[in-house]
Specification:
Order of helices and strands: HEHEHEEEEHEHEHEEHHH
Strand content: 15-25%
Largest sheet: 5 strands, parallel
Strand order of the largest sheet: 7-6-8-9-10
Number of strands: 10
Distance between the termini: 56 Å
Length: about 290
């Protein structure tokens, strides 16, 4: 059972809730807590996270504005202690059925997701569900994990965790474009894993996946479709075909006057913005 006490702050008013003002007040042997979600100002988050890691707890750090050197130190300590450090700046997670931060509960299944992009991981999970399948775990890494200063520590440790997880039969990696050296490091390790893996690094060259066992995808939708295919051996298409999208785009562009020159959009998540700009730059004419 995963329980998520808030470190250093009281929780919302929920029936049966237990409240603590400090991690040291909790007897973890009696309570069974094994994960701490931290939502504190960045200047305080690292100290609480370190305390939780030293107690042998997985940590989910929603907080942002944590220095990269502190993030690296926390993740190295987590690796040493055998616990996951999700974040800082981790937007979503779904661990053993418990939705963390802004995460949504999706259908239970056998595809594990590791995401350096919160909105991207959530979208892949939702498409998998709409294809009729489900998700075992969603492990968020935080938006800086694939920076060269961090080196993909949580994504690599997440792969190891899902490799051991009996419910997970396939793994999906989700990120915006990251450091080339770190992406290559992740793919090389993923090649050694026995479970099938698909990866999407939005905006990456197709050459990135040359010579790797990992299946490469170039959109969130494609990543979800390949994840399902690797799981069941059959293709499941979701949404509109590329041909339909191209035709729709052509019709919409035809409505524009020569004086119109700005493209504007409203997005719920930076990854959706980035993916849309990639599509737009590839297909815009004139």
């Amino acid at each position: 059972c995963v329980k998520c006490p808030h470190a250093g702050i009281s929780g919302a008013d929920v029936d049966g809730e237990e409240r603590y003002s400090d991690l040291d007040e909790i007897n973890f042997d009696e309570t069974g807590y094994n994960l701490v979600q931290i939502s504190l100002p960045g200047e305080y988050a690292a100290a609480e996270a370190k305390k939780a890691i030293q107690k042998g707890l997985d940590v989910f750090i929603f907080s942002d504005n944590v220095p990269l050197e502190d993030e690296f130190s926390l993740k190295e300590l987590g690796k040493e202690k055998g616990v996951l450090v999700m974040g800082p700046d981790c937007g979503i997670g779904l661990i053993d059925g418990v939705a963390l931060a802004a995460g949504s509960i999706v259908r239970k299944g056998n595809i594990g997701i590791i995401g350096a992009s919160g909105s991207g991981a959530q979208e892949v999970a939702c498409i998998i569900e709409k294809c009729g399948f489900g998700v075992s775990q969603i492990i968020g890494t935080g938006g800086h994990d694939l920076f060269p200063e961090i080196g993909g520590i949580t994504m690599l440790e997440g792969i190891k965790r899902l490799e051991r997880d009996e419910e997970t039969k396939g793994i999906t990696l989700v990120s915006k474009l990251a450091d080339n050296t770190v992406m290559e490091k992740v793919l090389c390790y993923a090649d050694t894993v026995s479970k099938p893996i698909v990866a999407v690094f939005l905006g990456s060259s197709k050459d990135l996946f040359n010579g790797h066992k990992v299946r490469g995808a170039h959109s969130l939708e494609e990543a979800a479709e390949i994840a399902v295919e690797l799981l069941c051996g059959e293709k499941h298409k979701y949404g509109y075909s590329d041909e339909q999208l191209q035709e729709t785009a052509k019709q919409e562009f035809a409505k524009l006057s020569p004086e119109q020159k700005y493209f504007r959009g409203l997005f719920c998540g930076g990854t959706f913005t980035e993916e849309t700009l990639i599509y737009f730059s590839q297909n815009a004419k004139g």
